[in-house]
Design a protein that fits this description.
- The chain has 17 helices and four strands.
- It is α+β, with helices and mostly antiparallel strands.
- A hairpin with a 4-residue loop joins β2 and β3.
- The chain is elongated and about 100 Å long.
């Protein structure tokens, strides 16, 4: 008996562990792309195209200023967390141009005065340690020369090895070349290690470092500045989504109430037919709607888009609201009428508040469905595109703008997330009455 109970407990524990692992795996699959999208939207051009790809978000930029070989010019480098070293960005002597370049490249607003101060400090530092710098520079040049020579020897040895490889008559030559190649690789590693040591040793004598706070929302500002019609398109999309919600709830909600409260011939078939329109691709419906909306004067207008989007959302709203209204006893309306309410008043003051969960769910589906629609909006707009169309066009035409595209994607998701949060308090699960 105890063995059976122990086996059941073990089996139950295994099943529970597998279930939690599955949940974590699904959560990881969902959250990871969102995390990378948000992270990239806050990255500068330098960080977005760095390799290995940075996993975190940096709030500061670390810079290094060194004197260049040309008189009066300076080398400005940016620290890469993934590579663990400073990467050269620009060389020059015009600090205003350097400041503008750093702002575009790293999203850090480096003041000209900061660059000038760093240049003066590095000049003073170099003059104070000129003897030490000369010795280290000579050693570094020698190590670089050794590395260049050994790289040439490696290339030459590999070519010779390729010619004799696999030939029995040249077996001894092949072994000698392999031994030489191993020695060259060892020398190369030693030279690279020495160069790295010398570079770290010389840095305190010929470079000045400083940190600047990064503008975290620079990509978002840039996206709305450089992208055509982005801000007006955002407001148009909000207008289209809200109109779609209004139309869907008005028509779909009243139709759902009718399906829930009245009996008539062919009701089930008519209710099922409301979903037929969702079986067709949205782009297939949009093509003939161009002519219809043009004749009505609604083509390339927010109201025209809302009417087209509502076609697919009304059927879903009918099914959701009909289920909710069927769960509300009709006796409550009758009791309200007994106490003096009209039929319409009973619906407004009794049934409608109880149906808010279904209406909130319908509003959420309608808002998200219309907000994220791109294919139909491309066909049905020309001079007044919606925000998803603007983001799509930026994505198609962008070259080297992955961080700006990510910023546009996050900006497109924010209104939908905000709307969902606002109606969250009205949303209940369809069964059990538990708050979401």
């Amino acid at each position: 008996m105890m063995d059976d109970l122990r086996k059941r407990n073990v089996k139950k524990g295994i099943n529970k562990t597998i279930f939690y692992i599955l949940i974590l795996f699904v959560a990881f699959i969902i959250v990871t792309p969102i995390y990378f999208l948000v992270s990239i939207s806050f990255m500068s051009d330098q960080e977005a195209y760095d390799w290995p790809f940075p996993l975190g978000i940096d709030f500061f930029g670390n810079f290094s200023v060194q004197p260049a070989e040309e008189e009066g010019e300076y080398i400005v480098s940016f620290y890469s967390n993934t590579q663990g070293k400073y990467t050269t960005l620009i060389q020059g002597k015009k600090f205003d141009e350097i400041s503008d370049f750093l702002k575009d490249k790293t999203n850090c607003d480096v003041p000209v005065e900061k660059l000038r101060e760093a240049a003066e400090n590095v000049d003073r530092l170099v003059s104070q340690n000129s003897d030490k710098i000369s010795v280290l520079t000579a050693e570094l040049a020698s190590s670089n020369k050794t590395l260049l020579k050994v790289n040439q020897d490696i290339v030459k040895a590999k070519r010779q090895l390729k010619l004799v490889e696999g030939k029995e008559s040249m077996k001894s030559i092949e072994e000698g070349l392999i031994a030489n190649l191993a020695q060259y690789e060892k020398t190369k590693t030693e030279a690279e290690t020495e160069i790295e040591r010398l570079e770290k040793e010389i840095e305190p004598y010929n470079s000045v470092r400083f940190r600047v706070t990064k503008d975290m929302f620079a990509n978002y500002v840039t996206f709305f500045k450089v992208t055509r019609d982005a801000l007006p398109a955002l407001f148009r999309s909000i207008q289209v989504a809200l109109l779609t919600v209004l139309i869907s709830l008005t028509i779909g909600g009243t139709a759902g109430y009718a399906f829930a409260r009245y009996r008539f011939k062919g009701k089930n078939m008519l209710k099922l037919s409301t979903l037929f329109v969702r079986m067709f691709p949205g782009i297939a419906i949009a093509m003939p709607m161009v002519i219809i909306l043009a004749e009505m004067g609604f083509y390339d207008q927010p109201l025209g888009l809302s009417l087209v989007y509502s076609v697919g959302q009304i059927g879903l709203t009918i099914w959701i609201t009909a289920s909710i209204f069927m769960g509300i006893p009709v006796e409550l309306e009758e009791a309200a009428q007994v106490f003096g309410r009209s039929k319409f008043g009973a619906f407004i003051y009794v049934t409608l508040p109880l149906a808010l969960p279904g209406l909130a769910a319908s509003a959420m589906y309608a808002f998200i469905g219309s907000w994220a629609e791109t294919a139909q909006a491309i066909v049905l707009t020309q001079f007044n595109p919606t925000f998803p169309v603007v983001v799509y066009q930026t994505m198609v035409g962008a070259k080297g703008m992955v961080n700006l595209i990510a910023a546009g994607g996050v900006a497109m998701a924010l209104p939908a997330v905000t709307f969902t949060i606002l109606i969250r308090r009205y949303m209940l699960q369809m069964w059990g009455g538990v708050k979401v």
